[in-house]
């Protein structure tokens, strides 16, 4: 069975990660950043700030089980996830969370097709004859990501036919 551990190296330093803290009765999810990893030893995350997780010290302690999820850079939309225990919480020189290195990770595809990044200026003509200017940011077999330029009115365009 593939462990996919090599994929952990594709999470960029500073990347946003979703940290789910598992408690006996529920779970708490918080966003934080990857600081780094030491292969086969531990993964280091930034300690979530108080706005993101009030009373974090009640939840983030040695031995607590967590689920870490992150987007893999350049993967065409894959999320990596693993479950592991907190090894240690450091407070000096910065507050950091050390997590035991996982034995295996799971991969989940976010998209059915690969997206090709672009920066193509374009105009989007809606079925109500409005025209929006912007950029096509990526293209896939099933569509495009269109970034509307400036403060143009884009209300009510979800599921609207366009060219």
Explain what this protein looks like in three dimensions:
The protein folds into two domains: 5-109, Electron Transport, Fmn-binding Protein, Chain A (Pnp Oxidase, Chain A), CATH 2.30.110; 116-148, no CATH class. The protein has a six-stranded antiparallel β-barrel with strand order 1-2-3-6-5-4. It has a three-stranded antiparallel beta sheet with strand order 8-9-10, with no helix packed on it. The relative contact order is 0.16. The protein has one helix at 56-59, and strands at 16-22, 27-38, 42-46, 65-72, 78-90, 96-100, 106-109, 116-125, 131-140, 143-148. It is an all-beta fold and 163 residues long. It has one helix and ten strands. Helices cover 2% and strands 49% of the residues. Strand 9 and strand 10 form a beta hairpin. The chain is elongated.
Quick gist of this model?
This protein is an all-beta fold. It is built from one helix and ten strands; from the N terminus they run βββαβββββββ.
CATH superfamily of the largest domain: Electron Transport, Fmn-binding Protein, Chain A
End-to-end C-alpha gap = 46 Å
Q: List how many beta strands DSSP finds.
A: 10
Q: Regions with pLDDT < 50 over 5+ consecutive residues?
A: none
Number of domains: 2
**Cα radius of gyration in angstroms:** 20 Å
Strand order of the largest sheet: 1-2-3-6-5-4
Relative helix content: under 10%
Shape from CA axes? elongated
Oligomeric organization of the protein chains: single chain
CATH topology of the largest domain: Pnp Oxidase, Chain A
Q: Report mean pLDDT, rounded to a whole number.
A: 86
Strand content: over 45%
The profile of the biggest β sheet is: 6 strands, antiparallel, barrel
CATH class of the largest domain: Mainly Beta
User: What structural category arises from helix and sheet content?
Assistant: mainly beta
| Proper CATH architecture of the largest domain | Roll
Order of helices and strands: EEEHEEEEEEE
Query: What's the helix count?
Result: 1
